[in-house]
Each structure stands twice: as structure tokens, then as C-alpha cells.
């Protein structure tokens, strides 16, 4: 049975069909290239509204049992960028190292990465990670943090994720 992985695009325009969602497909493409285990996408697009973001995150974690939920969009400083706040509202614990590492990696590419406010946290057996909305930044950020993701999910008691070693070297102590 494939492992469900949550992919949540947060965008007013994409949710109304005025703009093509490119962040969600960028996440799916990255996962398809890197993961060696069987998985299936549990994907949604919601507007930049805290209650809608929170409801989607809860649904993905609690109902669909996604061990990993990746969001894209809504992490900047604009007034409608509320993904980090919605994520924090549904998480039991925040893991600041993820945001710090993603911003550090992104700063090597673009100076405006310092404006990004993405966070990560846990909910039950799920890890939620906020990614930027820009498709190329999705890969930069996942490349920076994914080596630690499978072990984090192991510690939460979630599903085991495996990666192609030539794409991403996953770190598990003693492995």
C-alpha cells in the first residue's frame, strides 16, 4: 500500500483557478525523483486563509495519515502570507532547524530568501514543512533538509521513507 504524502498549495489565485499551481507539481516532481518507496500524493489547493490552511493540514495529518505534509506558498512578509501561522496553530512541536536550514540554503541563491518565514513542526505522527511558493526554491529547500526528514518521521512513529542514494543521502543514526 502506498504511503500518503500531503502536498498543500496555498494561493488565493491558484485556488480560484486564475493562476496555474506550479509549487505543488514541483513538490510532486521532486518526490518522484528522490523517493524509492511507494507513495501517493494527497494534494490540495487552498486560499491564503488561516482556517482553510489549518483544516487542510489537520485533514492530511489526522484523516489521511500523511507522515509528511509539504506546503508551498504563503511564507513571505505580505499581509496575506499566513501559512507559518496556520502551521504553528496545528502543530504540537515546532522544529526551528528546518526553517533555518532552508533559509541558509536559499540565501546562497537569492538575497530575498531572508524574507521567507517558512517553519516546520509535528502533529501526531506527521511532519509538516513549509516551502516557498517559487518552484525552483522548492527543490533548493528540500535538498537542504530532506536528509533528516525520514529519520524525523521514524522518531514520530510515522511511515518509513526511503530515497534513491544517488538523489539524496538519508541520514539515520547507526545505518
Question: Can you characterise this structure?
Answer:
The protein is α/β, with parallel strands linked by helices. The chain has a single domain, classed as Molybdenum Cofactor Biosythetic Enzyme, Chain A (3-Layer(aba) Sandwich), CATH 3.40.980.10. A six-stranded mixed beta sheet has the order 2-1-3-6-5-4, with helices on both faces. Strand 5 and strand 6 form a beta hairpin. Helix 5 packs across helix 6. The longest helix has 14 residues. 43% of the residues are buried.
Short description:
The protein has helices spanning 12-15, 23-34, 50-63, 83-90, 96-107, 135-145, 149-156; strands at 3-10, 39-46, 68-72, 93-94, 120-123, 126-131. The chain is of the alpha/beta class. It has a single domain, classed as MoaB/Mog-like domain (Molybdenum Cofactor Biosythetic Enzyme, Chain A, 3-Layer(aba) Sandwich).
Amino acid at each position: 500500500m502506498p504511503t500518503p504524502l500531503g502536498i498543500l498549495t496555498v494561493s488565493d489565485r491558484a485556488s480560484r483557478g486564475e493562476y496555474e499551481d506550479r509549487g505543488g507539481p514541483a513538490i510532486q516532481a521532486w518526490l518522484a525523483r528522490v523517493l524509492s518507496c511507494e507513495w501517493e500524493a494527497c494534494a490540495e489547493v487552498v486560499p491564503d486563509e488561516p482556517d482553510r490552511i489549518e483544516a487542510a493540514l489537520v485533514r492530511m495529518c489526522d484523516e489521511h495519515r500523511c507522515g509528511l505534509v509539504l506546503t508551498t506558498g504563503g511564507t513571505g512578509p505580505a499581509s496575506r502570507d499566513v501559512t507559518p501561522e496556520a502551521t504553528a496553530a496545528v502543530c504540537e512541536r515546532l522544529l526551528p532547524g528546518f526553517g533555518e536550514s532552508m533559509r541558509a540554503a536559499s540565501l546562497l541563491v537569492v538575497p530575498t530568501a531572508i524574507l521567507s518565514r517558512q517553519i516546520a513542526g509535528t502533529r501526531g505522527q506527521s511532519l509538516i514543512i513549509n516551502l516557498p511558493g517559487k518552484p525552483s526554491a522548492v527543490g533548493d529547500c528540500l535538498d537542504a533538509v530532506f536528509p533528516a526528514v525520514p529519520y524525523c518521521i521514524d522518531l514520530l512513529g510515522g511511515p518509513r521513507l526511503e530515497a534513491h542514494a544517488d538523489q539524496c543521502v538519508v541520514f539515520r543514526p547507526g545505518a
